[in-house]
Design a protein that fits this description.
It is built from 13 helices and no strands.
Length: 215
């Protein structure tokens, strides 16, 4: 708990000293202790230190769990360091830790931030092929990426899929913004796109957007 508190205040050096003191007194840190410190290191962009701590866990016979790997993948991706995130995912799979939808969504987000939508789509497809059901965050991440790159067909396909699955989605505002930008461009919109957006807006409780689309 104390390490968590120090991490929150970004007092990483103190937290590491406390971890060392625990070890000297024969108190074995567990995976929760390490996860908290790794999260803190990632928060202040100390990537090398975080990776070193991951290796140290092995030396201390503490097995990283799914959360350990998710912390690293998410942190790397938010900084656009996707190669390192992929390496972490590979280690995760080698250790027979099953990546979750959170892991895959974070990696997709990293690719989308870099504009690498084909790679983001591959991650999405890989997740589905492994039997992991995409959640609303997975879909929102990809749709947002496609909208920003003005790739209407791919965005429409995913919007249709969300509607077919009956998922609660929060991408309406982004998609609507994309739709508005299309009105001043050479991109074509058809009745199917209107229907998808109107349906999504109604399900999301955004009736003003639905009315504007109808008009």
């Amino acid at each position: 708990m104390l390490i968590f508190s120090l991490r929150k205040k970004k007092m990483i050096s103190d937290a590491k000293d406390f971890l060392l003191e625990m070890t000297k007194k024969g108190i074995s840190p567990n995976v929760i202790t390490y996860n908290s410190l790794i999260q803190g290191l990632c928060n202040v962009c100390q990537w090398n230190e975080a990776t070193t701590l991951l290796r140290e866990m092995g030396d201390q016979n503490v097995s990283p769990d799914v959360r350990t790997f998710n912390i690293l993948v998410n942190a790397y991706c938010k900084e656009g360091i996707v190669k390192e995130a992929e390496d972490v995912l590979e280690v995760m799979i080698q250790r027979v830790e099953v990546p979750t939808v959170v892991t895959y969504s974070a990696l997709m987000d990293g690719y989308c931030l870099r504009g690498q939508l084909e790679d983001a789509q591959k991650v999405f497809d890989s997740m589905v092929n492994r039997g992991i059901e995409p959640d609303v965050i997975s879909y929102n991440t990809l749709i947002s990426g496609y909208c920003k790159k003005r790739r209407i067909d791919e965005a429409m396909h995913l919007l249709r899929e969300i509607r077919r699955k009956g998922l609660n989605h929060t991408i309406v505002a982004e998609a609507f913004s994309f739709f508005c930008s299309m009105q001043n461009s050479e991109l074509r919109t058809d009745i199917a796109f209107y229907n998808i957006l109107i349906d999504a807006a109604c399900k999301d409780g955004k009736l003003e957007i639905a009315k504007e689309l109808l008009n």
